């Protein structure tokens, strides 16, 4: 877990991130990053200089935006194109089909694919962990859900089965004695969930930033429970994955991607103002909101012991039927 965890209070959000994030990596405008290592880490001899990365409409992608806009990828000889995915499962599908080379997702779909044998996935970089006020279950003011115990028997939004919005919510409910088999799960992409809450199509939803702030602004959504509690405190949330065949065929390309992402993550953690202009530019939010937005904890290098919490929770929740070794899924990690 990153030592530079940012803990902020929730602020309001003007516009949804989904459309803006789809274009977030389309151009480069230098942010003054230090490229003194460009010659030593440059892209000479990369197996694939242009790669596609599936991204999600969440702030987890922040360091990737910085790596692109700040020229970190360019310094490594990489041209990175972003491809929007509606959920972690959709991102996984894109990487398995070959539509993209790398995908960011909550960790759950990656471990599920490994467990079932549906895809030979390796984890190539870390992304985020849960931090206070970065992910929460919320409800509209007129919802019958006021506390976590009210969730039983209610309609709760999730992006897809066995994703973070599904399993983290279930873990929280189980911690509080809620019978999860009596919950009515409703599939809804994050950009659509605020409207579903406001119209009464669902009673509650687990939302990450920036959708937490968006829901608070547009419908006055009220937190029911913060995810950063109990069994899900500091929980590994998202990371980057690729199929093993691609990892083995592109070791130099992967190392270049990892180095750029590691630098961008380090710079984000040491100075969050480096990604605030990107939230304004691409997410189309105002500067004050960008400064106050709740962020997850960012990390780039993978730690097997920490990651083991994910498949262990999945096994406990019945999402997988046998133990998965996280260490065996970690791809070689580049060092700067």
Provide a concise account of the structure shown:
This protein is an alpha/beta fold. The chain has helices spanning 18-22, 38-41, 62-69, 72-75, 88-97, 107-116, 164-175, 190-199, 211-219, 244-249, 251-270, 276-283, 287-292, 304-307, 309-317; strands at residues 50-55, 79-84, 102-106, 121-129, 135-139, 155-158, 184-187, 204-208, 222-226, 236-243, 297-298.
Overview of this structure, please?
The protein has 15 helices and 11 strands. The chain has a 6-stranded mixed beta sheet with strand order 2-1-3-10-4-11. It has a 5-stranded mixed beta sheet with strand order 7-6-8-5-9, with helices on both faces. By secondary structure, the chain is α/β, with parallel strands linked by helices. Helix 7 (164-175) links the parallel strand 6 and strand 7 (184-187). The radius of gyration is 19 Å and the shape is globular. It folds into 2 domains: 18-131 and 234-329, D-Maltodextrin-Binding Protein, domain 2 (3-Layer(aba) Sandwich); 135-232, 3-Layer(aba) Sandwich (D-Maltodextrin-Binding Protein, domain 2). Mean pLDDT is 86; it is low at 1-43. The chain has helices at 18-22, 38-41, 62-69, 72-75, 88-97, 107-116, 164-175, 190-199, 211-219, 244-249, 251-270, 276-283, 287-292, 304-307, 309-317; strands at 50-55, 79-84, 102-106, 121-129, 135-139, 155-158, 184-187, 204-208, 222-226, 236-243, 297-298. Helix 8 (190-199) packs parallel to helix 9 (211-219). 37% of the residues lie in helices and 18% in strands. The protein starts with 17 loop residues before the first helix and ends in a 19-residue tail after the last helix.
